[in-house]
Amino acid sequence: MSGHTRRGFTLIEILMVVTLVGILFTVAIPFFRTATSKQSVRSAMAAISAMHARAKSIAVQRARTTQLVLDAGAGTAVILSTQVGGAVDTIGRVEDMVGRFGVTFSTTQATLSFSPRGIGTSTSGTTIIVTKSGFSDTLTVSAAGRLMQ
Q: Which end of the chain is more exposed for a tag (fewer CB within 10 A), N or C?
């Protein structure tokens, strides 16, 4: 008897591991795509909610009419504030929802306006639908400017 000990894996063992890894990837990849789409939509919804709150806050702080402008065609959102002389001031930066989150959105009203008291000036509510890869979520803003998710 020679004192040789066999080390390593047999071809059958390697093939079994490769097959199992392949099966796991075919199951896991669609799950991860769905999870990342859901997370992108949720993140975009959080960004729109934060911009909504900021627009209301700026209206009260500056005692001026403020708008949250949602351009669904360009996939952007921006806060604008009307100055005393009538000029419009851009607050912060234009948020590119498509570039940042990879989502698209639609809205029933492109502009949400807030009075100097932070109250919505619309005559009807607004619905914002954010979508990515078949997953979507909805934000609703009442005529008074209250955000409901």
A: N
